[in-house]
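Trying the structure run again after the queue cleared.
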Amino acid sequence: MTNYSENMLKLVRDSEGLRLTAYLCPAGVPTIGYGHTKGVNKAQVDGKRIISVAKADQLLIEDLDAVAQAVDSLVKVPVSQRQREALISFAFNVGSANLESSTLLKKLNAKDYAGAADEFPKWNKATVKGKKVVLPGLTARRSAERTLFLGDSGDIAQAVVSGEQKSLVSSKTIVGGALAGVGAAGSFGVQELIDVLAQVQGPLTDLAPTLEIARYALMAVTAAGSILTIYARIADRKAGLK
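Done. Tokens:
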């Protein structure tokens, strides 16, 4: 038995609705509990079969497990728990055969996770009196399934991006920032030393012109580092680094 999240179970329960007495669904299929049909027949309809909430939950888990096996056999790419549960809810409603032939599954197995997510809303119609019509209940369910499916897809997308893009550590932005920082700190330090030497007498005062040259050199390093940082950030953004 699969352990399902409470979010997923609530989605299915709310979408299916609970009937503790056997009944005929709009399609004329004997049903009970949360859309359970296996072992239910017309002789049990009209109050002749009644189950408890606990029994309805048991039947729901059994039905979900059967669908989960079908989903696991059809999906050929890694999916998160939330994505798997969204697919199970979807297949529970439309049937595993419809999932198998769907564009949703084709896109998913091509690792187009975003494209697969966008297929959920398209399955919001049912046949009523021979015509396909949009049902608000199905629209709401597909929206909830899509939201569930997208819950962890950011993690997969981030993993793909991390594998394809260079690390910011390797970017020249770091080098430029370091140069600018060292240059600014060095320039400030040299200026402090020059100010100190200006207040004392002795041989060390002869170093003042050399230190002044060093200060200008460090200022140039600061400017170069700043320019490198600006150009590197432009290049980073073009490469997709933030």
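Confidence is low (pLDDT under 50) at residues 153-171, 236-242. Worth checking whether this holds up in the mutant runs.
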